[in-house]
Amino acid sequence: MPDSRFFDSLPAVTVAQLGDRIGGTVVRGGDRSIIAVAPLALADANAVAFLADRKFTEALKATVAGCVIVPAAAVDHVPAGSAVIVSPEPQAAWARASLILHRAIAIGAGPRAVLEDDDVVIEPGVVLGQGTSIGRGTRIGANTVIGPGVQIGRNCQIGSNASIGFALIGDRVRILSGARIGEPGFGAAGSSAGPIDVPQLGRVILQDGVSVGANSCIDRGAYDDTVIGENTKIDNLVMIGHNCVIGRNCLMAAHTGISGSVTVGDNVMFGGKAGIGDHIRIGDGARVAGGAGVLADIPAGETWSGYPAKPIRQSLREAVWLARQVSRKASPAPKDQAE
Q1: Is residue 35 situated within a structural domain?
Q2: Per-residue pLDDT tens digits for 294-337
Q3: Is there a domain that residue 205 lies in?
Q4: Which residues are annotated as catalytic?
Q5: Is 7:102 a contact under the CB 8 Å cutoff?
């Protein structure tokens, strides 16, 4: 279930009602009650999941979801205990189901923010959502918005004009002005009516000692969490997509962009303007050179550069070879050959 500090659970629906509202055809189990959405691997008997890609067929066969939304060709792979809704656009149908069963809590009436001690400093123009908790010694800069349910630890420094939502923040965290923490990740599902947004139901977790630079963005998870490990330092204008898990003591220079569902080990360094493709794994102690475009997993301890990124020695050899070929073609022919 999505975290109740950030999301309201809406009334349960039957599979038959759900099928009607998302445009699917109920094959079996129409009277079953559904209260939540979840991925195949995490769904329980009260949740609806979906299959949109055949590579997850084994996960479908093992699921205990109460209901599964699948294309017609996958019906035979659904376990006997699960209700079935058939849709030609399963992910889009699941996204519609998310909106029926869950809703993000908006800033409004509710429990007041809890400040641990009198030495918490709240500068002018700050908005604190209901149920927010702020630890002692923390300072919140002018005009910053802290969303409902956000938990901020002790001795943190939050700059001005930042926004933080759907987040759990440790002690001694520094977030500079204009940073955006917990906005929805970029997720869209194709449908007959065009792409539709997939609701993002996860959180952001910033562990102790993390620094986030000015105007950087860290998206909340689609369902799981986006996690930034202890003492990781993020420069200005960095983008971290949904579901990323970043290790401890990592360094990210400005304009680094990390796509969704990337896993980064401890003590990894990213040069400025490095770009990482989605679902990549980067091992402990690896280094990514400035401007590199990473499209494959990087083993622990290696340094990669170039586009597409490769081990740095290979990348440099190829760059030198290419420069020599260009130089030879550009050189004028010797005079005796020209005659």
Answers
A1: yes
A2: 999 999 999 999 999 999 888 778 777 777 877 777 766 565 55
A3: no
A4: 242
A5: yes
